[in-house]
Design goal:
Length: 609
């Protein structure tokens, strides 16, 4: 079993007060310093900082939270600029044009991102650049509307209605307000179910799907919000510049700059892009002013050097570096502490799911598997698999390596479509349904774990479990509370604020179960949750599974640890070479000569005589 974790950017806990105080102080100085100095050039620099910080924060929703590294975000900025300028020329105020541009950009963003989500890493970035170029060429082509290569002037109508001013301070007020609004949107997204789902999708798409996340849908929502915000900022900038032309509005360099402030400040964090812009824009503007025409393009060189240094020494950006200093040492549980903790968690555990000595009888069928066949090319992996799972039952699924157990689980949770056969699940309404994808299975109450643990590495233990809890609790406070209760029940209480990437394999296994339990499933598919954990943890896991079973959940458990299989299972199903070779009472099944021959071996049989 590999302890596989990704190393995505760090995600700070959103509720800590010090970053909020820092952000408020930075914002206050962005407004008060230029207003206090009253110099046009200084005000211009602060307008640029606010604009870049806002654009980068909006980009961060897609590039940071969703992990889709777009290098073509100027497309939406350009759409916002052109829409507003065309409308201004028709006599419509940019305050309206701004929203028209936002709507168009959101639709365009979703339309071009949907097919590109299949592309990973640099391929998505390249596709985003290609679309940027397409829009630049389109703007050149439709010159009747856009002015073509010569660009378009904004009619010189001064005043708040037209967003054009003789002085710079009104523009500063507008862009400062827009920056605050963008930050509030990003902050709200980060705290919401959408934010958790985006980060979960970025970290582990399969695990996110298993938690009921509609991964394409949440990324499309993020793209729509991000594109709309960029377009609104594009409108402002067009009015500020009073002139637009295609190569400036749909510029690759500008797109890279937008992404870079977030990369340097802290990808996937609320305050990172703001910090990046505050530190970098004055530096480059100073370089531009100091060296002027003698070193044209010097700002690009400055950006390059800073980016190189950031990648080398601060892979998680400035925010990641700051976090490192304040992060508490990792909390590893020792044996005594674990015992105490297990004792101490009994109370909340019993409060939610009392382990019943008079376990309710096994009820009606909750899952029916009929004639399941799966082929990978010429390899026939599962052959005519039939079985049923009943309410409150624990079904042990055993068999040698390569027998097709995980493949079967993938079909029971919608991750694979069978070539023949069907899986029907009894829904909360009492009717039987045939789900087809992970979201459908989750909606019917089927939760699963993965053989290779799939933590959302950059999230804390609490946040990992919250991704599951959000399935039932849409409000952040409710989801956090449910996650905490589940964590204590699973023995993860003292580790709530630890990052998942720091857990031991035993901890990661428990986290995997905790996340799915937080979804309050009716059917639980456990894939080797006891592999690679010590004897004490195995005993604890057995107790935990019994308490889960007693709460009325039906369980199918793939397990090689026979101690667990024997003490947990009401029934055992043995799969060998894709076929069910035995099914029934565990004590009878382990005596079956076919099972001994195919899986258990003679030594096991002798030991259990
Ligand atoms: N996506 C795939 N493409 C091709 N072959 C696959 C794929 N997934 C699984 N297999 C093959 O199907 C067979 C069954 O694999 P599966 O992982 O389901 O077995 P398993 O019983 O879960 O084994 P283990 O106990 O080792 O996890 C193996 O031969 C495996 O190589």
């Amino acid at each position: 079993m590999s302890n596989e974790t990704t190393s995505g950017p760090s995600v700070p806990a959103p509720s800590l007060p010090w970053p909020a105080i820092g952000v408020v102080l930075v914002l206050a100085s962005l407004l008060l310093i230029p207003l206090g100095i009253g110099n046009a050039f200084v005000t211009h620099i602060f307008v640029t900082i606010c604009l870049m910080a806002a654009l980068s924060s909006a980009w961060n929703l897609v590039g940071g939270f969703a992990g889709q590294l777009s290098l073509g975000h100027a497309t939406f900025y350009g759409i916002g600029a052109y829409t507003a300028v065309i409308l201004v020329n028709l006599g419509i105020t940019p305050w309206i044009g701004m929203f028209a541009g936002a709507g168009i950009a959101a639709i365009v963003g979703m339309a071009i991102s949907y097919p590109c989500f299949r592309l990973k890493g640099p391929f998505f970035s390249l596709a985003s650049i290609a679309f940027l170029e397409v829009f630049r060429v389109l703007t050149l082509h439709f010159s009747d509307f856009t002015g073509g290569a010569t660009g378009k002037m904004i009619p010189l109508k001064l005043g708040w209605t037209w967003m054009v001013f003789r002085e710079r301070w009104p523009s500063l007020l507008i862009i400062f307000g827009m920056l605050c609004a963008v930050l509030v949107v990003v902050w709200a997204v980060r705290r919401s179910r959408l934010g958790f789902y985006l980060i979960a999708t970025r970290e582990r798409e399969s695990a996110a799907k298993a938690a009921g996340v509609k991964t394409v849908q949440v990324r499309l929502v993020a793209v729509a919000i991000s594109s709309a915000l960029c377009a609104m900022l594009g409108t402002f900038h067009a009015m500020y510049l009073t002139f637009i032309e295609p190569s400036a509005m749909f510029s690759l360099t500008f797109s890279i700059q937008i992404a870079m402030f977030a990369l340097i400040g802290g990808l996937g964090t609320v305050s990172g892009p703001l910090l990046g812009a505050v530190l970098l824009v004055p530096l480059t503007e100073w370089a531009r002013a100091s060296f002027g025409a003698s070193a044209l393009g010097l700002h690009g060189f400055v950006y390059g050097v800073v980016l190189l240094l950031a990648v080398l020494f601060m892979p998680n950006g400035i925010i990641g570096l700051l976090q490192k200093f304040r992060r508490a040492p990792h909390h590893e549980l020792d044996e005594d502490e674990q015992t105490t903790q297990t004792d101490s968690i009994k109370a909340p555990a019993q409060a939610t799911t009392p382990p019943s000595p008079d376990r309710e009888g096994i009820g009606r069928d909750v899952m029916r598997v009929q004639n399941l066949n799966k082929r990978f090319g010429g390899l026939h992996v599962t052959k005519n698999v039939n079985f049923t799972l009943r309410e409150g039952e624990v079904l042990g699924l055993i068999g040698p390596n390569g027998a097709g157990k995980t493949t079967l689980f993938n079909m029971l949770s919608g991750f694979l479509t069978p070539n023949e056969g069907s899986v029907t699940v009894r829904g909360p309404d009492g009717g039987y349904h045939t789900p087809v994808n992970p979201a459908d299975f989750a909606a019917l109450g089927v939760g699963r774990t993965f053989q290779i643990v799939q933590p959302f590495a950059a999230m804390t233990v609490e946040e990992n479990i919250m991704v599951g809890a959000f399935y039932r609790h849409h409000d952040e406070h409710d989801a956090r509370e449910a996650a905490r209760q589940t964590a204590w029940r699973m023995g993860l209480g003292p580790l709530l604020q630890d990052e998942a990437r720091g857990l031991t394999i035993g901890g990661l296994k428990r986290l995997e179960v905790a996340r799915v339990m937080a979804m309050e499933p009716r059917i639980l598919l456990l894939d080797e949750v006891m592999a690679g954990i010590n004897q004490t943890d195995v005993r604890r896991a057995i107790d935990l599974m019994l308490s889960i079973r007693d709460s009325g959940v039906s369980i199918i458990a793939i397990e090689h640890v026979m101690q667990a299989v024997m003490s947990l299972s009401d029934r055992v199903l043995v799969l060998a070479a894709g076929e069910v070779i035995a099914e029934g009472d565990p004590h009878e099944v382990v005596r079956d000569p076919h099972v001994i021959e195919a899986y258990l071996g003679k030594e096991f049989a002798n030991a259990h005589r």
